[in-house]
Amino acid sequence: MYDPLSGMPEFIELREELKTKGRPVSVLGCMSSQKIELVSGLMRDYGWLLYICRDERALTPVFNDFKNFEPNTYIYPAKDLLFYSSDIRGGYLTNERMEALKHLLEDEKGVLITTADGLMDKISDREALKGQSIRLYESMIIDPAELSKLLSAMSYNRVPEVEIRGEYSVRGGIVDIFPVTEDEPYRIEFFDKEVDTIRSFDIESQRSHDRKEAIEIYAASEKAGKKEVSLLDYFDEDDLIALDEPVRVRERASSVELEFSESVARRLEKGLEADEDMAE
User: How far is CA 126 from CA 25, 133, 165, 226, 277, in A?
Assistant: First the structure.
């Protein structure tokens, strides 16, 4: 495959500077599409790429551009720090984040795209997140009733029939699960307490198709463990971090922090006023 960047002296110099000097490097004068091509070219020397966008509106266009260079590309959307619990998109955003974290744990290379406020979330560390998952495999001995309890503890909703991510159903010796990190659900058929077969299936037709020897089920919610970390803690020296328009990224982070602080102050003030009224 022809790579026009590999022979450019500027690109070779940039690549060497990143590898040898171990400090931030600024690149100026690139158009949007050129940024993605440039960073994709640099990725060959690293494992994962963390690409930090200036704001949420840039996530999807950047995602689409990166998919042309790296199929293993994911978006890690930020929580709404003020209204997350009442945000109707909360479940969808959780699915996206859990899918991204799963691939960070399991894959050696890829692209993760987020914003400054996405880095402000407190999440479980790698070990705790892995501990919140369960691995199911053929010939595994587990009671369907026990599996049901585990799934409920992992915040999966039990329903009569699985339709969306984060749901599971139990019908006799069959357990259907739609993992939050997958694009299709799985059907686990039991022979007494032994997992007989695991197959993916179609929601509409309910027909099973691809057989799996094993699957990993991740929790359906982001339960922070005893050790809370930032998304940055999932990356190390073998990974590359790129900031698109660093000044605007910093402005976004400062804006979100200020907005959150002011909201907390208002809520505390209202709480104090309410306590005073009750005392009177």
Answer: 28, 11, 22, 12, 46
